[in-house]
Amino acid sequence: xxxxxxxxxxxxxxxxxxxxxxxxxxxxxxxxxxxxxxxxxxxxxxxxxxxxxxxxxxxxxxxxxxxxxxxxxxxxxxxxxxxxxxxxxxxxxxxxxxxxxxxxxxxxxxxxx
Length: 113
Hints:
CATH topology: Aspartate Aminotransferase, domain 1
Strand order of the largest sheet: 1-2-3-4-6-5
Oligomer: single chain
Radius of gyration: 13 Å
């Protein structure tokens, strides 16, 4: 598995601030040749090499794709629905990283409700 272990540790630390009702339901799984973090079995955020992989609620995709360093996830050379990649320059600060993690958690919560 080739992924940025430092980024994985940053994500783990960021996930600890979520309420216990969420944090107790989080797990990790090897996916897409990297590492994914799941909430109740739903992929939220992950890492492929050095890129952040995020699930995004469909209604937010258009605006999220306008952000710098964000592109559609094209793992199979075809954009995947409700997935984005964020280049490392897009999550330099912990606040930027947290914002993307919150998008991923929101996606999982919506799909589960």
